[in-house]
Amino acid sequence: MSKPYSRFAAWRAQHAAACRSSLLRLLRRPFSSLLSLCVMAIALALPLALAWSLLQLDRMAETVQASRAINVFFLPEVGVEEAKAIGAGLNGDARVAKLTLKTPEQGLAEFRQSSELAKAVSLLGKNPLPCVLVIEPADADAMPLVQRLQALPKVEFVQYDGVWQQRLNAWMALGQRLLLLLGALFALGAVLAVANNVRLDIAARELEISVLQQLGAGDAYIRRPFLYSGALLGLLAGVLALALLMVSARYIQPTILELIGNYGGGFRFSPMPLAFPAAILAFAVLLGITGAWFAAGHHLRQTRPVDL
Amino acid sequence: MTLLRFDGVGKTYPGGHRALDDLSFGVQAGEMLFITGHSGAGKSTLLKLAHLSERPSKGAVWFDGKNLNQVRGGRVALHRRRLGVVHQDHCLLLDRSVQDNVALPLLIAGLAPDEIRQRVHHALESLGLAGRSKDLASALSTGEQQRVGIARAMATQPALLLADEPTGNLDPGLASEIMQMLVGLCAQGTAVVIASHDLALVKRMRKRVLVIDNGRLMDDISPEDLADE
After folding, report:
1. Terminus-to-terminus CA distance in chain B, angstroms?
2. Are B72 and B145 members of one domain?
3. Are A10 and B80 in contact (CB < 8 Å)?
4. ipTM above 0.90, yes or no
5. Closest alpha carbon within chain A to B155
């Protein structure tokens, strides 16, 4: 046989033939292909939905992060000057990044702006709000500072939202671990769905594969159309999973916004980053190729001549 | 030049069936050799060993100076690309066209599309199938399918062509025609090894004949001896 020439043209011809063949295979078994496609899409969509939810929660956590200030509420009889004096005693503490005194008048003005109870408050004869020290802690762990503030004289109550943040962070960490676990499990499911589809395809094409092997086709040549099938299945499943995610998000967003609105929150859903769909499609294609690789590799190992 | 050599080759299948026993012979480049014997004598096993569809249990098969026992992994496919194979049941892909079937080994070998077209056209024309190149293989008669199988093997211009009962499904006239094509291939330097139990055809061809019985080489008859008989 003469030596192969124009390697690129030959390579292109082989890939074109493999691609055409894999597309025909999928179209010849539409029901089986559609089933695999749906299984893979759902397997991708579930961890995607969880990832999207975590993304939103992360944004909420950032809001909490912004309000990790410590509010020190004095007893009602403590006047502004006395509160200033107590606050001045904290200026030398390295754990205090910033200290602001909020007078009862300032507090009332804020209250009127942000609460539906403002009218009711204005009906009261006198301002019921106390002086408040608003302290931004310098350290991530503000609990030692909170304990010192609680021990200050004439302090009625110390409010620290950082506790909520810590709890939220713990939930987020749990969510991320769950995402990883579920993602890995569903990714495995997607790989198996493709592998099963390819295995069925291989079983239906056993004679063809045998003929190709007899004619000198190597593992790469035999595997190639199945890899294209896997990649194609992965790509379509990725598109379907993204579509499912978008439809689900659109369906559920108004309900969540209404729920948050009832609690007086001004939260808005963040749009999906542009790289997200591209990464999902690339990942889905990779999963498809992996599944096809395993199924085709298993068959190829079984059909090799028995060695000495 | 000895292209193919069996050196004390034995083959015992799992289960204990001994298909070949201490078989030794050589085939020259451009030589035509018939392997004959009754059904189950070991003819097909012999071809499988040369094709690396099976491995010998003992001894060695040498091809073009290489011990095939040492050909492993991806190199098995490379070895097969140097061979042409013709089966009794022709092993065509029935859902593909005649030209696609003939082009298959050329595509596998990585030839450029232009050369593939040229070789397919030439092979089909020389076997009288040019007019049916676009037909599906399933639409052909058994004889035509066999000719496509031969065209496919010839198109690769192999160093060695292995044919297992290539005329088993054909009428005598067509069988002779195909044999003449294989003789033509030998003239171009291809060694042709044909397993056949059609003694009449074997005698008519007057080529070297190996007679195998129960996996043992019983006789190695030269063309001259055959002519004398």
Report:
1. 28
2. no
3. no
4. no
5. A1
Least Cα distance to B92 among B83, B80, B103 occurs for B103
The mean pLDDT of A295-303, rounded to a whole number, is 85
Q: CA-to-CA distance for A284 and A241, rounded, in angstroms?
A: 9
Which helix (H) or strand (E) segment holds residue B147: the answer is helix B142-155
**Domain co-membership, B35 together with B146:** no
The whole model's pTM is what? 0.70
Tokens (6 digits) for B172: 């005598």
The structure tokens 């040369």 sit at: B50
Tell me the pLDDT tens digit for each residue of B113-163.
Answer: 889 999 999 999 988 888 999 999 999 988 889 889 999 998 999 999 999
Boundary residue ending a domain (A133, A160, A187): A160
Chain B residues within an 8 Å CB radius of A11: 110
Cβ–Cβ gap B69/A211 under 8 Å: no
Do A273 and A214 fall into the same domain? yes
Nearest-Cα distance to chain B for A300, in Å, is: 11
Reported as a pLDDT band with limits 50, 70 and 90, residue A74 is very high
A308 inside domain = no
The number of domains in chain B is: 2
Q: Do A1 and B54 touch (CB under 8 A)?
A: no
State how many domains chain A has. 2
- Predicted confidence band of residue A228 (pLDDT cuts 50, 70, 90): very high
CB contact under 8 A, A304 and B107: no
Name the residue among B52, B56, B111 with its Cβ closest to that of A10: B111
What is the residue range of A111's domain? 69-160
pLDDT attached to residue A308? 36
Please report residues of A whose CB lies closer than 8 A to that of B53: 214, 305
Closest CA relative to residue A134, chosen from A164, A103, A111, A109: A103
Task: Tell me what the pLDDT averaged over chain B comes to.
Answer: 90
Contact B105 A211 (CB under 8 A): no
Give the gap in angstroms from C-alpha A28 to the nearest C-alpha of chain B. 12
Domain enclosing residue B148, as ranges: 90-157
**Run of H or E residues at A229:** helix A219-262
What's B68's DSSP letter?
G
- Interface size A-B, in CB pairs within 8 Å, comes to 89
Q: How far is CA B148 from CA A242, B125, B191, in A?
A: 48, 11, 20
Torsion of CA B143, B149, B154, B159, to 10 degrees: -130
Which residues of chain A neighbour B149 with C-beta distances below 8 Å? Answer: none
Contact A211 B92 (CB under 8 A): yes
Asked if residue A285 and residue A250 are part of one domain, the reply reads: yes
Q: Nearest Cβ partner of A211 from B91, B107, B159? A: B91
Q: Give the chain A residue nearest B54 (alpha carbons).
A: A305
Domain boundary among A160, A182, A213: A160
Tell me the C-alpha to C-alpha distance, in Å, between residue A15 and each of A12, A19, A197, B110. 5, 6, 21, 11
In tens, the pLDDT along B159-214 reads 999 999 888 767 788 788 888 888 988 998 999 999 988 888 888 888 999 999 98
